[in-house]
Amino acid sequence: MARIAEQAGVQVLLVGDTLGMVVQGHDTTIPVTLEEMLYHTRLVVRGTERAFIIGDLPFMTYNVSSDQALANAARFLQQAGAQSVKLEGGRHMAPTIHRLVENGIPVMAHIGLTPQSVHQIGGWRVQGRTKVAAARLLDDATAVEEAGAYAVVLELVPTELAALISQ
Questions:
Q1: Are 92 and 50 in contact (CB under 8 A)?
Q2: Which of 27, 42, 58, 106 could bond to 32 as cystine, CB 3.0-4.6 Å?
Q3: What mean pLDDT do residues 12-32 have?
Q4: From the candidates 36, 49, 155, 160, which is the catalytic residue?
Q5: What are 92-127's pLDDT values in tens digits?
Q6: Could you report the per-residue pLDDT of 78-99, keeping only the tens digit for each?
Q7: pTM of the predicted model, to two decimals?
Q8: DSSP assignment of 33-94
């Protein structure tokens, strides 16, 4: 799949923990392990020549401490061959993002519907519909940008809010 995507002109490939649902048949992304993500990322790297590869840090592999996040993110670059990592979370993850970036690991942030928090946020639903929730997402986006994230995934966010955040 990676080779086909690259041949079709795709320049950036995210190896997401959603593979837990799409490939492994789980109901959520939560059961996906770090070892599984490293394995799948290595396969994507081997199947491509030029694409920028992003490895998705799975559930609870970066939340305990910035030391844990740094060690696990480094594995994506060193062992799997990724050029970047993705992690979920806004303002509360900004210090971790900053730590990774200051140590040479490019970070893509992910806000809005964050699948690793699906049980906490009440299921698979659009985020940021109220003024308070929209303001929180805008604040999250600003915080991760200031922390050094080079991009932000906006999942299940109203179009108008996504446009505002993107600006």
A1: no
A2: 58
A3: 96
A4: 155
A5: 999 999 999 999 999 999 999 998 998 888 888 999
A6: 999 999 999 999 999 999 999 9
A7: 0.95
A8: -HHHHHHHHHHHHHT-SS-EEEEEPPTTSSSS-HHHHHHHHHHIIIII--SEEEEE-SGGGH
For the question of residue 155 being annotated catalytic, the response is yes
Cα separation, 120 vs 117, whole angstroms: 5
Q: What letter represents residue 100's amino acid?
A: L
* CA pair distance 142, 165, nearest whole angstrom: 8
111 phi/psi in degrees, rounded to 5: -130, 175
| Residue whose pair of structure tokens reads 């929730």 in the numeric block | 133
- By C-alpha distance, which of 107, 121, 105, 106 is closest to 155? 121
Question: Across residues 41-62, what is the average pLDDT?
Answer: 97
